[in-house]
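Fold Annotation — chain and its backbone
Encoding — discrete vocabulary of local shapes
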Amino acid sequence: MNMIYRILLVLSILAIVYPSNTNAKTAFTVVLDAGHGGNDPGTKGAKVKEKEVNLAVALLVGKYLTESLPDLKVIYTRKTDVGVDLWKRTAVANNANADLFVSIHCNAAVDKAKKIITNVRGTEVWSFGIQSSPKYALDNLNVIRRENEVIQMESNYQEKYKHLSNQTDYIWSEFIQNACIEQSLELSSMTVDELKKTVSWKDRGVKQNDGYIVLRGIAMPGILIELDFLTNPEAENFLISAAGQSAQARAIVRAITRYKANYDRKNGLSSEIKAEVKSEVKAEVKSEVTTEIKPEIKKEQPVVVEPAKPLTSVYKIQILAGKNLLPANSSEFKRYKTAYYIENNLYKYTYGESSDLNEIKAMRKSILKDFKDAFIVRFENGVKVETIY
């Protein structure tokens, strides 16, 4: 790293830690980084590639930010399905003298044999730092390794990233990010707080580590968001739906808006919010969802997510509920063929299905001898909306 570049980085750090109250900089700048892209799909769910969800949500975040904060500037590391080297992503932010860097990703869960684990889900938000708790040490290492593996797709990557093994440069990058650590943690906490309002399951909290290449290279506060697990069916259904992408994008925007309001207040600046980004209804995503929207992403084309088409009501009979997922041949089902959905962290099992309420009433009557407490529930678009009786 040459001396001129180091001097520029020091000036950037001083600007972050001791911001000026002058109007030398015309706009608060946020760099949105849609993880992966092009030949790098990221992780994969049963129905979608990570790069597609990352881009769809990043574009929505940018759209909502510009609508709600007219004095804010948004820069994207990519707006189409193209591959971008990690060093270029950080260079975009550093060259723009950005105030925030937000990298958007999706997670995956696999065991030691690389077999998919389907029952793990929840949002994680990462910032630079040393993880003090060893509780999730192995999981954390696997996530970091997966996000960094993309450099091996880059030409001459050994030369580009040789500084990562240089002790002097490592200490230097740590010094840069330590100057931003308080602000990064502030944004991380706000982001988790807002994202957890969009789903019914528990978030996985704020995490810190110094292993993310894309965070080590920036000279401003930054976070890396793992929206949820594409390896979990319920989470994937939510992430590929128009409603899910909109809800999570709006949550990220609310977090950035809160952060900027604090930033402006600390520096004696006025904040202008043109349109309030309101919280959307928390999603109760069910395993039975069959109509999802997969964002179609084409090279050099923006992502357009069409709204889901309304479906007619469907009635089912709920017979059991519990904290554990039962196998399909469980004796508790008494040989009835069942389905399940998830609500309030409980697995709720149903029998039968009909759009005719009278038909489902007759079906319920026929199984009361085996399930005396059975009752009817109504679904729309795969989501439970009403308990009949």
Notes: The chain has a mean pLDDT of 77. The two ends are 70 Å apart (CA to CA). The chain has eleven helices and eleven strands.
